[in-house]
Amino acid sequence: MSSTVGQVIKCKAAVAWEAGKPLVIEEVEVAPPQKMEVRLKVLFTSLCHTDVYFWEAKAQNSAFPRIFGHEAAGIVESVGEGVTELAPGDHVLPVFTGECKECAHCKSEESNMCSLLRINTDRGVMINDGQTRFSINGKPIYHFVGTSTFSEYTVVHIGCVAKINPLAPLDKVCILSCGISTGLGATLNVAKPTKGSSVAIFGLGAVGLGAAEGARLAGASRIIGVDLNPSRFEEAKKFGVTEFVNPKDHKKPVQEVIAEMTDGGVDRSVECTGNVNAMISAFECVHDGWGVAVLVGVPHKDAEFKTHPMNLLNERTLKGTFFGNYKPRSDLPSVVEMYMNKELELEKFITHEVPFHEINKAFELMLKGEGLRCIIRME
Ligand code: NAD
Ligand code: ZN
């Protein structure tokens, strides 16, 4: 490995030249890491909805050509100036949002919204010098959320890298760098259901099933899954979801259906759909006096949340969370340990696997809504 230190590395990357067009495997040049950066050899990456959303570029002006990818696991190849916490050979998860450990958010026990390294989907360059580390014949190729893991090598700010147990299987724990941790943390860190309680999960995609996994770990006795897509219910049984409600099967609003099922409402609810009506239902279906609802889904930019203030005065709590309130560097290593200790199950989230040169198949699966996570193997 050391022979590449300080050198430009030529390797394969899946480049998105244009919005919505299949990725093209190209030979790219990856510059060495600069101050407070590391260069990683990516071994496994997986596809998350956020990659597809920005690749489609429906609602925003994405910078192209770009290298997407943010759910991944790899090994540090070399480190830039001033890096003391990471060394070549360390096993790591790159994360789309960071932790500088210096700002008011990083110093607060309650926040993970780092002011320096919080997710930025518009920025396609490194913050150190405003340049890209990827190029093809001198033409810059833009980064995505500071990670760009659809490349054999990538350069990442150290604040966006979690150093993990070197014994952890990278082909499994790579999915902890985004969606699964988001859902899991929403339940364990924010909703905090107690043993024997009831939890409603709105949206049974990877994030919602991560939230259901959190409810199972917390010892919830009833986990009610809500989804408009009945094909999601079969898969969700593996995640300890005990009951299912399809809002389409009822004339009444789903919050009333749930209140009837639970003698007044669930103890906790976690919304993982991104649909504002589901968000309102998720709030209104919690029990008065103690119920807590947590919003996770990213809504449409024009969405407005409407509810009668009495719903709050009657002692219901509404919260929202970003990346499950996990601080990437401080907290992700312990989530990996939950898997190593066999508390957390990850295999059931992995429904497909493809070699890197077939990465477009992973996009096709996600667009068809098939499966949960598709692992992309780099070698
Ligand atoms: P997904 O598309 O795989 O799953 C969403 C599920 O919600 C689908 O099964 C869909 O049928 C269901 N659904 C849609 N509208 C519904 C409604 N009105 N009622 C009931 N069910 C409904 O998505 P995912 O990858 O699991 O992500 C879920 C959400 O979490 C997305 O909005 C995503 O952007 C968001 N997210 C948030 C964070 C964060 O930090 N807050 C991080 C990652 C993802
Ligand atoms: Zn910070």
UniProtKB/TrEMBL annotation:
- Reactions this protein catalyses: a secondary alcohol + NAD(+) = a ketone + NADH + H(+); a primary alcohol + NAD(+) = an aldehyde + NADH + H(+)
Span of the signal peptide: none
Q: What is its EC number?
A: 1.1.1.1
Q: Where is the Alcohol dehydrogenase-like N-terminal domain?
A: 36-164
What are the protein's UniProt keywords?
A: Cytoplasm, Metal-binding, NAD, Oxidoreductase, Zinc
Query: Ranges for the Alcohol dehydrogenase-like C-terminal domain?
Result: 206-338
Is Metal-binding a UniProt keyword of this protein?
yes
Gene Ontology BP annotations: formaldehyde catabolic process
* Annotated Gene Ontology cellular component terms: cytosol
Q: What class of enzyme is it?
A: oxidoreductase
Protein name per Swiss-Prot or TrEMBL? alcohol dehydrogenase
- Its chief place of residence is cytoplasm
Cite the GO molecular-function annotations of the record. alcohol dehydrogenase (NAD+) activity; S-(hydroxymethyl)glutathione dehydrogenase [NAD(P)+] activity; zinc ion binding
Name the Gene3D superfamilies on file.
Medium-chain alcohol dehydrogenases, catalytic domain, NAD(P)-binding Rossmann-like Domain
